[in-house]
Design brief:
This protein is 66% helix and 0% strand. The chain is built from seven helices and no strands. Helix 1 crosses helix 2.
């Protein structure tokens, strides 16, 4: 009984690798719905239907919506998201073949403008309300998140939106990371 030939073992090994990646999540306790969602995402990654991405500015817990987000913040964020989508599609329509080179500077400018606006507000009114400060943090974090996605590729933001992980979609901001990067 010698070892199997490489031709015969290759499909089995590929199946085992896929099975292990999809089904062996590695967490001790996880709910049934969360496990199914994670398995579906992992299967999409293997099948090439999902784009894995880095997302630094949101809280890592699934379904962690921001309880301090007001309807006014939601309206302002959706308008900003539409403006960023318009910018993205205008870059694509203008023949931007080098997305990684051309898109990040455009999103960086929006982020810099938002940071300047937030810092000007904080200096103008030192006793600023917590809600207004939170509004500025959410806007800056949303622009930073879109910049991070633009640096990773064209369709990463659509993949993140499909998973409901956008800050401007209602997710909470990771304040520890935000304060490390932006200082307020």
């Amino acid at each position: 009984m010698g070892p199997e030939s490489p031709k015969r073992s290759t499909p089995r090994i590929q199946y085992q690798k896929r099975y292990n990646f999809v089904h062996r999540i590695g967490r001790r306790k996880i709910g049934k719905a969360a496990r199914e969602r994670e398995e579906r995402t992992r299967a999409e990654i293997i099948d090439g239907e999902h784009i894995p991405y880095k997302n630094s500015f949101t809280v890592r817990q699934r379904l962690s919506h921001d309880p301090r987000r007001t309807p006014a913040m939601a309206a302002e964020e959706s308008a900003a998201l539409r403006a960023c989508d318009d910018l993205k599609w205008s870059l694509i329509e203008n023949g931007t073949h080098h997305w990684a080179r051309d898109a990040p500077p455009a999103f960086r400018q929006l982020l810099d403008d938002s940071i300047a606006s937030a810092k000007a507000y904080m200096h103008a009114s030192p006793g600023a309300s917590a809600e207004e400060l939170h509004r500025h943090r959410r806007l800056v974090a949303g622009y930073a998140q879109l910049l991070e996605f633009a640096e990773q590729g064209v369709h990463v933001d659509a993949s993140a939106a499909g998973e409901n992980t956008l800050i401007w979609g209602g997710r909470r901001v990771n304040l520890r990371k935000f304060k490390q990067v932006f200082g307020f």
